[in-house]
Amino acid sequence: MNKNSNVARQPNRREMLQRVGAGFGSLALSALLAEEAHGADSADPLAVRKPHFQARAKRVIFLFMPGGPSQVDTFDPKPELTKFNGKSSPKLYLGQKRNLLASPWKFRKHGQSGLEVSELFPCVAKQVDRLCILRGMVADDVNHPGGCLQMNTGERVATRPSLGSWVTYGLGTENQNLPGFIAIGPGPLIEGNRQYGAAFLPAAHQGTFVSDMKNPIRNLKNNQVSPERQRLELDALRRLNEFHRIDRSEDSRLAARIESFELAYRMQTQAPDAFDLTKETDKVQSLYGVDRKETETFGRQCLLARRLVERGVRFVQLYHTSGGFQPWDQHSDLKGGHEKNALATDRPIAGLLEDLQARGLLEDTLVIWGGEFGRTPAAEGKDGRDHHPYGFTMWLAGGGVRGGLAHGETDEFGWDAVQDRVHIHDLHATILHLLGLDHEKLTYRHAGRDYRLTDVSGVVAKAILA
């Protein structure tokens, strides 16, 4: 007899579930095994899943403008600011009295809708009939770190899954050979990967960050072995990894790491083509401003975003970060700073909208533009504006929203949202709704409670739906 024969073998996780389930009947056993099967299936966490209801949009491009573009200088004209320029503001800001500051730019009506747009955005103004401008946006944080986190994750302080992570968690992605969520920015981000991270969601849903447009993803080519040999090596590695994972199925980080090897291999076949902008015609590159020094960087980002969503990537987020962490943060030299930023982004954004429309993609691609908050109608110093989350502007296009619409309103000077307010939780609820997801049902159990992107708030802005 083997000297260890009297020592009982430790049951694996599935056997333990079967034993526990036997005490609760077949229904409980089925539920437990179903949960286990879900964990086992985490090797394919980005498989396409059905939405809760019929979706209007299939994919998202979020054009994030860190720092806070000024609403009263871009898409929310305020003639009263011009009339009372330099006069004391009737509203205190953080307990301080400041003088009102007129916009240095003129607003003009455009398109059949007649919506007014600042001369800062002459190219985007030509697309105004495709825009749904939200003039009553509201946030809760006056500082960049909390503001950026709330806009991107719904939470100002704690680490929470990002919007893109929630979307891929709910829907998966249409192309298993590319990441489901890609974030693109040429410079550092405030709060770093917390803006595009997955937090407690399965790790496969975090964004893949691209910062170098010339070498977007390192090691895409394997120059060491042939594809056939690499496939054999990966198969052997996967068998060993799966053996290691048998009793660790609850560890999503391990599952994501194992799957990352397979995704990396598959990406070698499609990612080089997706990221190769030289395959675009000169005409298309010019449409995005790639051929101009001032628009080349963001133009490349926008063109790449189109190529990615065209290939089935579910969520693409672009960060306009050239020149620093928050390029739209003009505490001084409002005119110089905003003109530089608008010049860098206006043509690329307009080109993106026009190109998506021409390719039949805009109808089911939701495009979002905006920063973490806006800026004060009153001056900071002589020629700047301070942070302002209590009434600012964002816009949406495509993906089932009404074009040529201005929704919401701020007061006569642009201080507070006074009509059809859209809080960030409401914006997130609306984005999920357009994708066919009920924000109250898209939950994930963590630390003993069910979490969702909108926390315990959020109302869909049904008035903006097409």
Structural description of this entry:
The structure is a single chain. The chain is α/β, with parallel strands linked by helices. The protein has a single domain, classed as 3-Layer(aba) Sandwich (Alkaline Phosphatase, subunit A). It is 33% helix and 14% strand. It contains 12 helices and 17 strands. Strands 1, 4, 5, 6, 7, 8, 11, 12 and 15 form a 9-stranded mixed sheet that branches. The protein has a two-stranded antiparallel ribbon with strand order 2-3. A two-stranded antiparallel ribbon has the order 9-10. A hairpin with a 2-residue loop joins β16 and β17 (449-451). α1 (13-22) packs antiparallel against α2 (25-40). The longest helix is centred in the C-terminal third of the chain and has 25 residues, at 334-358. It starts with 12 loop residues before the first helix and ends in a 15-residue tail after the last strand. The model is unreliable at 1-42 (pLDDT under 50). This is DUF1501 domain-containing protein. It holds the Pfam family DUF1501.
Q: Features of this protein?
A:
Alkaline_phosphatase_core_sf; 12 helices; disordered N terminus; 466 residues; Alkaline Phosphatase, subunit A; alpha/beta; DUF1501; DUF1501 domain-containing protein
